[in-house]
Amino acid sequence: MSSFLRGRTVWGVSQRLALHRPNVRVFSTDLVADNFVSGSSSIYVEDMYQQWTKDPSSVHPSWDSYFSSLSKGLKPSQAYQSPPSLGGARMQQMPQQRETSMPDMAQVGSVEKMVKDHLSVSALIRAYQVRGHHIADLDPLMLESMRYEFVPPELVLANYGLGEADLDRVFTLPESTFIGGGQKQLPLREILKRLQSAYCGVIGVEYMFINNRDQQEWLRSQFETPGVTQLSPEDKKTLLKRLIRSAGLEDFFAKKWPSEKRFGLEGCEVLVPALKSIIDVSSSKGVDSIVIGMPHRGRLNVLANVCRKPLETILTQFKALASSDEGSGDVKYHLGLSHERLNRASNRNLKISLCANPSHLEAVDPVVQGKTRAEQFYLGDKTGDKVMSIIMHGDAAFSGQGVVYETFHLSELPDYTTHGTIHVVVNNQVGFTTDPRVSRSSPYCTDVARVVNAPIFHVNADHPEAVQHICEVAAEWRAKFHKDVVIDLVCYRRSGHNEIDEPMFTQPIMYKKIKATKPVVEKYADKLMKEGVVDESYFKDEIGSYLNICEEAYKTSSKATSVRNMDWLDSPWEGFFSTRDKSKIEPSGVEEDTLKHIATVFGTEPEGIDVHRGIKKILGTRRELTEARMADWAMGEALAWGSLLKEGIHVRLSGQDVERGTFSHRHHVLHDQNKDKTTYRPLNHLFENQAPYTVCNSSLSEYGVLGFDLGFSMTNPHALIMWEAQFGDFNNTAQCIIDQFISSGQAKWIRQSGICLLLPHGMEGMGPEHSSARFERFLQMCSDDPDKFNSDQSPTYEVDQLRETNWIVMNITTPANYFHAMRRQVKMPFRKPLVLMTPKSLLRLPEARSSFDDMLPGTQLKRLIPDQGGQAEQAPDGVKKLVFCTGKVYYELSKERHHKQLENDIALVRVEQICPFPYDLVKGQIQQYPNAQIVWTQEEHKNAGAWSYVQPRIDNLLRHHIKERRRISYAGRFASPSPATGNKSTHLLEQARVLADTLNLENVGGMNGNGNGNGGNMEARH
């Protein structure tokens, strides 16, 4: 096409210039404006132009004149001229015979009306595509309060100047519709009938906001093509059988345990055949593994009839038996599984994982996505053809919980995408007791999905064949386009929020209708009987057959004497535990040659990359450190991760700005200053056949991204998965993941995870939002008992402590200890989450460096670092104060102690691993300094930090194990509701007082055991 038309739209052409010829598309300037975003308008003009270049007589004279003028260089606004004639006779003249005679006005008017009516029909078709879902028959209860408030005016025929008299007129269909089914012209009556069938029946489709023409066209074909939803008699029988199993299990539960909560599926029994349809299609497309997340409603039914977990195992959960293995367990409708079975539709083996989930309904969403992405990563599945995810939602939670939005926004990010997720909303039209009209502001609960242009399929859940169709389309969409899609199953709850709840208190009108509504399985059976597909005896036989299956499973479950939590693992690590010595942690030291090689590569300027001059300076510093055999924090980190990569351990670091590091210390991705998308990642170029290093900047999300990385960590125990907060303070927006999954996951679901939380922490005068990772919260959730102190004489004491705790909490002060902490995560014979307070000012503090000697074979993590740099250790009897502390305050205390020349009087001991508490090492330090006053110093406020965790544990040691009258006292900031002051001068004053109170020797010997000590004096001054 010539340059004057390329990329332009003909806006100035009058409607009366539109073509009325069978071989040329009807074209409207108004329609052009409507369709411009999809790029379809210019296609009409381009096609017409191409036709004109071949044969000018094949287009209307007005277009001939227009294109001729453009070819001579006129602007589009100048190229239009009134056509010589709109009469039918003039259309037959050859170009050389054209005249400028006046047209017959009656003929002109007739043609203009015909063109206008064709344009109106085209606009009407588009209106149904855009707005038809608003008047679809979606509610099985037909509640007036749930209907769209009015019929959109775009769907009213009279608004287009058309009426009853036009219904039998034949119109040419635009190419933007498939309702013709091969026919290019249809009567208006048939056009409306087909449009209403496609868009206003029991399916409502939202897709016209998608800004991709191919995707729009494909979706149109799936819903507009006549007869596309029809099923064969055998398919209808299969669908009925699946409904019978779904409804039959709920009936069986209700009869056996009428007063037991189970959050049954009554009212949305179609969910089971819906999921099975998705799985059938996906399996036939090559999917081998499906990761599922769902809230509690219908979970037991999905476990039994979709995942095919043995029914007797599920029934055992109703018997209130004690557990025969580890873990406290969880209620039955929170549990997950991992199961492999044959998919009969595709005749392929399929692994299904259903993730355990608490009652925080949508919290599992990012966990599912992380687990899915991990499986794809380790299988080399870069397009999601082998592994996929399905997430189920409730309507109120889908619209009400922000993590849904956070998860959707991960869907297209390079390091977080799962290449398309199928979301299924079980739309009860009520949330617990709350009406949708007061629980959301959007017309649909699914509107959040529009932010990523996901197509949304609404369907009346009492019409199983329609449900099956949209599920198959959704699975096809995901396989073809690798993008998210949402299925909105509009249904109801036959019971209240649970089986013992009374819904009539708050939804009397709704539940009167529900009581009068026949179950969907009976409705569908009646339909098939009328069609002659089945008869009544077939229906009853199938019900009886499934009831017998349930009864046999019940008899088997009655013989059980205990439940096995191991049966509910959603992430089994085959062979991991059986190949490791449970009482031994493998060494974490590394040979010096390996350390030097990693450090050298880490400090080398890459060839072919023009790096920033500031980066060149950083690389120079790294080379100097390597030459001196020293490591700062960034170097210690690189040595730890690089050595793991050499050993075949995948390392993944995720979070906001982690590539560079919040404090510009890491720089694991070097950017060319002149070429976009040209980068170099040194840790991926260390060794041949090394494991991959994945460092990925995330969206500005904590809840969603931490959940994602937790899910990633569940898949493969032979990996180091880390999430870093931009500042540790921001982990509080991910508190749900921390509380519900990380802290308690092993106890509830036997779910081990080695995920590491890197949380920058420290009072640096940066204000209340950038100072505290809320150290105390993690310590409060530690499962170790302050009054329990097993013998420290056991050679396996350290590993036993680690095995028994729910997680590890540390505040370390040296790069070497960071190095060992990272490597120990992988060397342990089990997996525990690590919560690590990471530094800010220590990143560049010269004193906070480590020699390579501290990372060589034979070295290990120091849970506690005794006094260094003074004479206290040489004459312990003369030490007046034994100060325990953790984190960067140690360096400030050490500097001030040296300034005041108190090295002989005060011993400074760093507790690097707070939980599990190093009783054995702390005990040894206390006994080493028998005459010293014992003080805990922290820079955090008294109601924060580690004080409330440390104090009862050290007192327990003193009372019951060392058996002394000494008690530990506190030195630090006073209690405060805010984590830190926002005033720099106040911060400096507070910090000076912390140091002064700690190093003050005036009150030594005056302790009364009340736990206040010098810290009490500090509080009094405030």
From TrEMBL:
It catalyses: N(6)-[(R)-lipoyl]-L-lysyl-[protein] + 2-oxoglutarate + H(+) = N(6)-[(R)-S(8)-succinyldihydrolipoyl]-L-lysyl-[protein] + CO2. InterPro entries: 2-oxogl_dehyd_N (IPR032106), 2oxoglutarate_DH_E1 (IPR011603), DH_E1 (IPR001017), KGD_C_sf (IPR042179), ODO-1/KGD_C (IPR031717), THDP-binding (IPR029061), Transketolase-like_Pyr-bd (IPR005475). GO terms for cellular component: mitochondrion; nucleus; oxoglutarate dehydrogenase complex. The keyword Ribonucleoprotein does not apply. Belongs to the alpha-ketoglutarate dehydrogenase family. GO terms for molecular function: metal ion binding; oxoglutarate dehydrogenase (succinyl-transferring) activity; thiamine pyrophosphate binding. NCBIfam families: 2oxo_dh_E1, PRK09404.1, PRK12270.1. One of its GO terms (biological process) is tricarboxylic acid cycle. It comes from Ramazzottius varieornatus (Water bear). This is 2-oxoglutarate dehydrogenase complex component E1. Keywords: Calcium, Glycolysis, Isopeptide bond, Magnesium, Metal-binding, Mitochondrion, Nucleus, Oxidoreductase, Thiamine pyrophosphate, Transit peptide, Ubl conjugation. Residues 631-845 form the Transketolase-like pyrimidine-binding domain. Its main location: mitochondrion.
